[in-house]
């Protein structure tokens, strides 16, 4: 299936596996790429040295294009961009809008720039700055999210910009892909659906927790870092929601120290990242620290399998997913479903 997205990047199918921290590592990304979709490596939880190793590991497993997700506001964003350029990465994905200068540097090196946005005005801004495409995530999506549904946000963005738009939030099958294309999107991006594959390195016990979830077990909370965050409702989430500021600050300091060791950030860089998150938001310092080290809470679940000590970011689609196919099986299934759906619509049934 050819779309503006597949032509832009050179992948066979208009499907994107999003850059999920502690989940989107070399194994998942290369399996996605080999299946013909765009795999995106999550770099925020890696040191720069580990990022270079991970890129080379993906490259050793596939000849297909893949991307790297970056935090545009990170203190070492420039260093990470330089590594991507040196290693010949095809796509740069951003959770927050990159600066015009960062976009220009990447484009000059031939890297495709695809920021993620949650509002029409943000899409217009990055398009004006030179972004090649944009991922627009509706409120159904996992992790940090907004409150506007994909079915409302997507057509707004499609009508507002002249670059390819990739729809995210609520997608898991071929019917959703066709629906997104009907709205004018060039493809769909999925996180939870790729997390729940046999190629994902997430521990089996954690995957089982996702598979057992109903749509009512997926919630949006501000208790983790002061920002709307969609995740599975767990005992930890309930405890954080009922904790006072003093207890939250104590937990935050401990986790921040752990994340600093794992990420290689200095204390000054960690504080700088926290200040960037606090800017323009009514956050307590406990929430700022949590925002800066939310990756540690994710790691506890996604790497260590501690569902009692970690958080599990999740799209609402977790409530309708009940199997663990390989990436190859998943992509083949979605594309077959999409073709059958299109044929049925053409036949009037």
Give a verbal description of the structure.
This protein has two domains: 228 residues, TIM Barrel, CATH 3.20.20; 89 residues, no CATH class. 48% of the residues lie in helices and 13% in strands. It is globular and about 60 Å long. The model has no long low-confidence stretch (mean pLDDT 90).
Run of helices and strands? HEHEHEHEHEHEEHEHEHHEEHHHHH
CATH A-level architecture of the largest domain: Alpha-Beta Barrel
Distance between the termini: 21 Å
Low-confidence stretches: none
Morphology? globular
Strand content: 5-15%
Structural class: alpha/beta
Mean pLDDT score, rounded?
90
Q: Which bin fits the share of residues in helices? A: 40-55%
Walk across the major sheet and give the strand order.
1-2-3-4-5-6-8-9
* Largest sheet features: 8 strands, parallel, barrel
**What is the number of strand segments?**
11
| CATH C-level category of the largest domain | Alpha Beta
* Oligomeric state of the chains in view: single chain
What's the CATH superfamily of the largest domain, by name? Aldolase class I
Rg: 19 Å
């Amino acid at each position: 299936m050819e779309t503006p997205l597949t032509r832009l990047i050179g992948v066979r199918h208009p499907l994107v596996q999003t850059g999920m921290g502690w989940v989107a590592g070399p194994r998942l990304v290369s399996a996605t790429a080999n299946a013909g979709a765009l795999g995106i490596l999550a770099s925020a939880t890696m040191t720069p040295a580990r990022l270079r190793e991970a890129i080379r590991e993906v490259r050793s497993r596939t000849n297909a294009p893949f991307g790297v997700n970056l935090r545009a506001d990170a203190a070492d964003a420039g260093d990470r961009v330089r590594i991507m350029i040196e290693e010949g990465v095809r796509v740069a994905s951003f959770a927050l809008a990159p600066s015009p200068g960062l976009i220009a540097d990447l484009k000059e090196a031939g890297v495709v720039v695809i920021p993620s946005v949650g509002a029409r005005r943000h899409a217009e801004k990055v398009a004006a700055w030179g972004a090649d495409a944009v991922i627009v995530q509706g409120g159904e999506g996992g992790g940090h999210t907004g409150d506007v549904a994909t079915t409302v946000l997507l057509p707004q963005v499609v009508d507002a910009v002249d670059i390819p738009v990739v729809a995210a939030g609520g997608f898991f099958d071929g019917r959703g892909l066709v629906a997104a294309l009907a709205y004018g999107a060039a493809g769909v991006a999925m996180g939870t659906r790729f997390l729940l594959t046999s190629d994902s390195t997430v521990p089996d016990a954690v995957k089982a927790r996702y598979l057992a979830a109903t749509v009512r077990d997926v919630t949006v909370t501000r208790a983790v870092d002061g920002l709307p965050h969609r995740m599975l409702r767990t005992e930890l989430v309930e405890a954080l929601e009922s904790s006072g500021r003093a207890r939250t600050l104590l937990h935050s300091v401990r986790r921040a120290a752990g994340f600093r060791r794992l990420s290689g950030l200095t204390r000054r860089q960690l504080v700088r990242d926290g200040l960037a998150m606090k800017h323009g938001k009514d956050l307590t310092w406990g929430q700022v620290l949590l925002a800066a080290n939310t990756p540690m809470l994710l790691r506890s679940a996604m790497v260590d399998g501690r569902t009692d000590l970690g958080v599990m970011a999740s799209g609402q689609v977790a409530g309708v997913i009940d199997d663990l196919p390989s990436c190859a099986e998943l992509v083949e299934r979605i594309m077959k479903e999409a073709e059958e759906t299109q044929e049925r619509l053409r036949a009037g049934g």
